[in-house]
Structures are given as structure tokens and as C-alpha cells.
Description:
32% helix; two-stranded parallel ribbon
Amino acid sequence: MAYTRKDVSTLTRTERRRFVAAMLEVKRRGEYDEFVRTHIAYYVSDGDGGLRTAHMAPSFLPWHRQFLLELERALRRVDSGVSVPYWDWTRDRTLSSAPWTEDLLGGNGRRFDRQVMTGPFAYAHGKWTVKEGVTDGEFLTRDLGRRDNPIELPTKRELDSALADPVYDKDPWNSTSTEGFRNKLEGWGRGSGSAAWRNHNRVHRWVGGAMLGGASVNDPVFWLHHAFVDFQWSRWRQRHRGARYLPARPPGPVNRQHGRVVARHEGMPPWGVTPDELEDHSRIYRYA
């Protein structure tokens, strides 16, 4: 029977407590840091050689769908009633709204070092030490809204613009693709400031701190953000009936993306599952 992923703002006090407790237990068991290591390992950009799966590629959405499922399975081994909630950043846009509450993820980092001091993931509680990252810092950091160079969260209008594109992705299948739903949602734009980061990408930069770069999984909001991004893929498929993941077949040997992107029926490392197998999640979970 399919379980439900809910809007984080609708969770009851008990649901909030159970989600936080399961996250902390997965961390205590040492499993959580493996998720951080995996994301770092597959954080491959356009300029790097070899296969790209997690970012700047068509498989951005199915790769993170499977990643979410792996985390959710770990959580449900702790508490079978827990699922990952989603954060609708087009609606909950203030620093005091969910998920930035004391009983969920805590709030912003303090000004001088961005350390998160509130909530269950604050370093002072001793239950959320950063062990895998790009710096030596052991505490969770955030810079919500970027105090010194402010940016805004994406709007519903910006998200709707991505959802309106009827084609999943297009050549050159990377961060420079100007057409296709995938990159409009992933958010590699042009220019400077907010224009350079759209939708998914801008949210990472709005949160700041640990959410910047390959080690972004260190902030639990990563999962709530990606659950909402995953929800948009579901909405896109409902809006554009019959539209499928692209490319259907691997780019040919003369294409610059040959061997660099995952086609519909090719396995995605490290799990081997294909985008085709992940397009329909209705038998596993649904969104409320």
C-alpha cells in the first residue's frame, strides 16, 4: 500500500516529533553520513569528465527520486509510519514558517559564523555533528535569504513556467539547455544574481550555509526541498500526459554528450535502477 508524503506545514505535532526522531536515529546509526558521501561522490558538473547522473543532466530527477527513496527506507526502518514531508517554497516563504520552527529543523544561523543554534539539529545538542563536508566545521550552518546579498525564493509563477514546458529535456542535456522541463526546474540560468539560479538551484542558495555544494545533504532541509522538487515531476507528468523521460536512447558517438548522460532504459549508479522504472511512483508513495 502506498504511503503519503505531506506538506510539512500540515504535519501534526506528533508527526513532526516522529520525523525528527527518525532522522536523528538514522544519523546516530551512521547511515546518514553515507548519504552525504554518496551525494558528494555524484556531484559531477558539466566541466568534469565521465558520466553525469545527479546534476546538470536529464537524470537529475530520477536520481534524486531514488536517493529520496533510500533515505525514506532508512527512516522507515526506524519508524514505519514516517515519510519525508515536502516544503512548498512558493508558499512558505518566511523565516518563521515551517520548516524553520523549533520543533522541526530549527532556524537561521547566527550572523558571525552561520551556526544554527535552535532546533533539534543544533550542534549544542550533540546529535547532529557534520562529519562529511567540504570544510572542517562540525556544526550545521545556514544563511536564510543571504543577509549580505539578499535573494528571494522562487515564486509560483517561476515554477509554473517550468511546468508548462511539454518536453522533458533537450540536447545538449546539461546546464546550458535552454529548453525542457528538467533544466527549467533544476535551475541553471544565465546572468547574475537570482536570474542565474532558478527554482531548485535558487532554493539551495537561499538557504545557504551547508546547502551550498555537494555536501548539501548535511542540512535536513535538503530532503524536504527535494521532495517538493520530486512532487513537481509528478505534477508535470500529470499535466503532459504521455510525455516521457528523455533521451530515450543514448546520444551517439559523435555527440559531445556520448557516454555522459543516462538514457531512459539505462541504469543509474550507484543503484542500477533506470529512469523508466522510476517514472511512476504511485505504487510506492503519493503526495497530499
